[in-house]
Design brief:
mainly alpha; 0% strand; 145 residues
Length: 145
């Protein structure tokens, strides 16, 4: 219902008058997703990085189902456990970020602290999570070796 209501209230004239901004944001979003898959993916997922990274890339380009489809295409026999790991990740990710708590509260938080402050906090959290993921990948590899 929420998605139907949101789509129903969209103004195509507004989107049409802001095509350059939409194109720039789209290129930046796709670029970040590709960078995450090809550069960060091998550092975070040391074993079977492509299968794991493809699932995350699919989610970043559409939705959770797209991630599962790409994971199944990369590993149809599920030898890498990428689809299973991706599914378990969604149990914690979706209630917070994937249309969950932070997504619902983002507008009130931005109104309370300002968009620049929110952007800085988001950027710092992104960097911290990347560092944590890379370190976790390295420590997991050391434990396996």
């Amino acid at each position: 219902m929420l998605i139907v209501a949101a789509i129903g209230t969209m103004s195509l004239a507004t989107i049409g008058s802001n095509v350059p901004a939409v194109v720039v944001l789209t290129v930046i979003g796709v670029g970040w997703s590709v960078f995450g898959m090809l550069v960060l993916g091998p550092r975070i997922h040391r074993r079977n990085w492509l299968e794991h990274s493809l699932a995350d890339f699919g989610q970043s380009q559409g939705n959770v189902a797209t991630g599962f489809v790409l994971a199944d295409m990369a590993d149809p026999k599920r030898q890498s456990q990428a689809a299973t790991s991706y599914g378990y990740k969604q149990l914690t990710y979706e209630p917070i970020l994937g249309g969950g708590l932070l997504t619902a509260l983002s507008v009130p938080i931005i109104m309370a602290i300002g968009s620049l402050t929110f952007a800085i906090i988001s950027a710092v959290m992104t960097v911290l999570l990347i560092v944590w993921g890379v370190r976790r990948g390295r420590s997991r590899d050391a434990a396996v070796s």
